[in-house]
Amino acid sequence: MGPHVPYLSTRTLTQLALDERERYPLASFATLHHFYVDDLLSGAVTEKEAVELLVRVCAWILRFIKKSRSPVSRTFGYLKSSELHTAVVTIVRLIQVEFPNEIKCLVQGNPLPKDNKLLPLSLFCDSEGVLRVGGRLSRNTRLSYDQKHPMLLPKNHEFTRKTWERPAGLELFALVTGMNAMDKNLFRTH
Predict the structure, then answer these.
(1) Whether the Cβ atoms of residue 133 and residue 150 lie closer than 8 Å to each other
(2) pLDDT at 105
(3) What angle do CA 15, 19, 22 make, to 5 degrees?
(4) pTM here?
(5) What single DSSP character describes residue 125?
(6) PANTHER family of this UniProt entry (predicted)?
(7) What contacts 43, CB < 8 A, 6 or more positions away?
(8) How many angstroms separate the Cα of 100 from the Cα of each of 94, 116, 135, 163?
(9) CB 121 within 8 A of CB 174
């Protein structure tokens, strides 16, 4: 990277905000008024808003990357639910690097070692590479896929704490609390 990277990133953001001012007035305003060099200095009032903002910003970034790689397939307008889902999956996969041994075993098709603390959770990797909890809930046909197989998050991660306090969407995640995780009301739903 050369010495001009901060300038180029700032210039690109400014031009994008000016070009898209009509279609995305709020994003344009935030980009033009809440950036210093290449850092966004905007935020949220509550932790719930911060988590939602993180997911939305990630979704916008993923859309931008997709557009820049394939200018033919353009997506315009508001974020779609599939884009928000992809953003959540991306964030969770980044957090799940804290489970390298479990992911390696499951991706290679090997069972977890018998002394692994997460063995009682019947973990599996889904088609998107997300570590999920299996078990008895999978037999309940009235539950959604995310309710039957919550995404696994480490208990002490900042995102986990913020998401767990969030009143809606708790059924998407499971916390790792140790050997007695299943006995400690691991799956909370609203």
Answers:
(1) yes
(2) 92
(3) 140
(4) 0.65
(5) E
(6) PHD-TYPE DOMAIN-CONTAINING PROTEIN, RIBONUCLEASE H
(7) 50, 53
(8) 11, 12, 21, 22
(9) yes
Q: How far apart, in whole angstroms, are the C-alpha atoms of residue 113 and residue 111?
A: 6
* pLDDT tens figures, 46-76: 777 777 888 888 888 888 888 878 777 677 7
Alpha-carbon separation of residue 91 from 52, 79, 112 (angstroms): 12, 17, 24
List strands edge to edge, sheet with 151-154. 124-125, 131-132, 151-154, 173-176
Q: Which residues in the chain land under pLDDT 50? A: 1, 166-171, 175-190
In this prediction, residue 34 carries a pLDDT of: 75
Joined tokens for residue 91: 């964030």
Angle at 97 between CA 91 and CA 99, to 5 degrees: 125
| In the block, residue with structure tokens 């009032």 | 45
Distance CA 43, CA 47 (A): 10
pLDDT score recorded for residue 185: 35
Distance CA 106, CA 102 (A): 6
Pairing between strand 39-40 and 131-132?
A: unpaired
